[in-house]
Design brief:
Order of helices and strands: HHHHHH
Strand content: under 5%
Helix content: 55-70%
Distance between the termini: 10 Å
Number of helices: 6
Oligomer: single chain
Structural class: mainly alpha
Number of strands: 0
Shape: globular
């Protein structure tokens, strides 16, 4: 699985854990819902670290917590886009 798909999956997982939908996460993060939708649906192939940090802030987690997931730990270096 490529990095973009892993990031999208992680956002969806964290939304489910925290009880957020795309719109509520967008409000908490202070970014447009379309930004999150574009990441999840693959239109944004390379979301910036600032955007991911804003999402983490909205979720009340650190960047470390975002990337501290089994799917990132098991990633092969060849899978990094």
């Amino acid at each position: 699985m490529d990095t973009q798909k892993l990031v999208a999956l992680r956002i969806q997982q964290l939304c489910a854990i925290h009880g957020y939908n795309i719109n509520s996460l967008a409000r908490q993060a202070g970014i447009p819902p379309s930004t999150i939708k574009n990441i999840i649906h693959g239109s944004s192939r390379n979301p910036g670290i600032v955007t991911i940090k804003l999402l983490c802030d909205g979720l009340g987690i650190s960047l470390y917590d975002f990337f501290d997931a089994s799917q990132f730990k098991c990633m092969d270096l060849e899978d990094v886009d």
